[in-house]
Amino acid sequence: MKSDPRVIIVGAGFAGLQAAQSLANSGAEVILIDRHNYHTFIPLLYQVATAQLAPDQIAVPIRTLLRRASNLKFLQAEVQQVDCIAQELTTDQTTFSYDYLVLATGSKSKFFGVSGAAEYAFQLKTLNQAISLRNHLLTCFEEADRESDPVRRSQLLSIVIVGGGATGVELAGSLLELFTGSLKRDFPHLNWSEVNLRLVQSSDRLFTEFPDSLGKYTAKKLRSLGIKVMLGSRVSQVFEHGLDLSDGTYLAAATVIWAVGVQGEVPLGLPFPAVGKQQQISVSPTLQLSDYPQVFAIGDLAHIPSHQESLSGVAPEALQQGVYVAKAIKNLIQGKTNKPFSYFNKGRLAIIGCYSGVGQIAGIKLRGFLPWLFWLVIHVVYVPDWRNRGLIFLTWLHNYLIGDRPVRLIFPSSPAILPRGRSPDQLS
Ligand SMILES: Cc1cc2nc3c(=O)[nH]c(=O)nc-3n(C[C@H](O)[C@H](O)[C@H](O)COP(=O)(O)OP(=O)(O)OC[C@H]3O[C@@H](n4cnc5c(N)ncnc54)[C@H](O)[C@@H]3O)c2cc1C
What we know:
2 domains; FAD/NAD(P)-binding domain; binds flavin-adenine dinucleotide; single chain; five-stranded parallel sheet; alpha/beta; 428 residues
C-alpha cells in the first residue's frame, strides 16, 4: 500500500504554522520542525521587553496548536542540512526523507557591517532577547538608584534605539510609557531629567513604509512626549556603553537597542546561496525553488522577484503564503498545477504609544487614537489561543486603567542573562 506523501515544514512562525494548520486532514503526513517548542507572536515582543506582557502571554506550545488533526506532528529540533537531490533533511535529532519541503525559517537581525552591533546591542527577534532586554533595563534603573556618580548614573539611564521603523517607534513609545508610568513611581528619588531616550534613524524621516506625512506626524508625536528623535544620523560603531555616529558624535548609553534591518535566517547546508541585500531564498511565482520544485520557501525567508514591490516582510504576508503553499501542495499531490501566489494587502497599522498610532487602509491615512485602537484589536484577535487572547486583553485593560506595568521582574537565573543580543538559540 502506498504511504501518505510526507511534507516537512521547517519553522513554526507565522508562515510555517499556518502552512501546517492548512494541511490538517489533507491526507499528507506533515512534520513541523522548530528549534523552540513554542510559537512566538513576534509583533508583541516589544511589550515583553517593556514589562507590559508576560512571556507566556505571547507564546503558545506548538503541540497545542497542532492538536486538531492527527496527520500533524511536531519535532523540536535544529535543522542542519538539506539535500535537495536526495530529498533529505538532517536535524540535530534525526534525518528525514520528504516528498515536499517548506522552508519557513524567518529572518534575523542584519548589522550592515557596523562593528560592535552584534556584540553589544540588544536585539528583538526572539522571546529570550525580549526577556534579556527587560532584565537589563530594570537592572539599569536599580543600579542608577544606588549610584552616586552622576556620569555613571546618566549613562545607566540613557537608552538609544537604532532604527526608526515600526519596531523602533513602538519600542520608544512603550519605553516612555514604562518610565513615566510605573518606574517613576518605583524610583521616586531618581532625577528624571537624567533619563535620556533617543531614537536614531539614518534616513531623514521615520516610518519609510508609510507616506511622508505619517512619518512626520510620528516624529512630532515622539518629540512631544520627550523622546529625542535624531533623523539623518547613521551609527558607525557600537560599544559596551554607547555608540559612535558617522559624524563623530559619541552617545553614551548603557542600553543600545538594534531595531533596524533583517536578513533571511537561511538554514545551514542548503545547496544554493541566499540572494540579494536581504540574503533570502529566491522563489518562483508559485513559491517553489526553480531547480527543486518539491521545495518551497515562504515568509520572511522568501524573496519573490515577481512581488518585489508589494511585499515588505510582515506577518500577513507570511500567513497568506502559508495558506497558499498548503493549497499548492494539495494540488500537486492531486496532479494539478498552481496559479501564481498573489498577496491581498489589507492595509498597515503601527502603534506609537500613549494612545496614538498611524495607519493606511485602502489608501486612507489614519493617525491618532483610531489606528492605536485598531492596532490593539487586530493584534489581540490574531494572537493564537483563547487563553492568551483573554490574558492580553485583561493585562492591557489593567495597564491602561491603572497606568502600571505588572511584569517588572528581573530573573537572575533566567537564561536571558547572556551576552547582550545573544540568546541561547544563538549560542552553539
Ligand atoms: C520586533 C518585531 C516586530 C514586528 N511587528 C510586526 C507587526 O506589528 N505586524 C506585522 O505584520 N509584522 C511584524 N513583524 C514582522 C513579522 O513578525 C514577520 O514578518 C513574521 O514573523 C515572519 O514570519 P515567518 O514565519 O516567516 O518567520 P518567523 O515568525 O520569524 O518564524 C521563523 C521560525 O523558524 C524557526 N527557525 C529558524 N531557523 C530554524 C532552524 N534552523 N531550525 C529550526 N527552526 C528554525 C524559528 O524558531 C521561528 O519559530 C515584526 C517583526 C519584529 C522582529
